[in-house]
Amino acid sequence: MAAPAPHERLVDLATGSGLLLRRLAQRPTRPGEAIGVDHAPRMLAHVGALPHGWSTIGADVRHIPLPDGWADVVTCSYLLHLLDSVARAEVLAEARRLLAPRPSARLVVVTVWSPRPAVRGVLGILARARPVACGGLRPLDPGADLASAGLDLTHRITLPRRGYPSLVLGAKAGPEAC
Questions:
Q1: Which of 11, 56, 127, 149 could form a disulfide with 138 if both were Cys (CB 3.0 to 4.6 A apart)?
Q2: pTM of the predicted structure, to 2 decimals
Q3: 9-177 belongs to which homologous superfamily?
């Protein structure tokens, strides 16, 4: 869904140990520039070597030191479901700010979620009962959050295949931004 092209710039919010960056670096077609952003220096220390033109920034993902419209692609994997509604709104506003004012600019978010209510219920119970061990399993469909941030949903895919049951949403800035 992100499918960054060689002429595009990508920002990965909450990049953590850089898993997405490393996977993109292995592709034959990858963005010309990519920046992973995370507030935790210990996570960024695990990113490792990146291709020329790629880097990491230690920063709060609500306040990234990049100019407006810098990115063609912004990704945010497994962060939004950890945040309260105010922090989610701030992160999405920052993601929207970073998106270039072009129709092709896009945001891709991934959260823990399942299309099955029973699975969502179990995940929610685990997250509340064991917040340290399982707090990150709180299911979230951030579609309404994206709309509130002025982002138009373009794609919706559920991934029950491996790992966490997940929801992947693609979005673009609303027409007033382009």
A1: 127
A2: 0.92
A3: Vaccinia Virus protein VP39 (3.40.50.150)
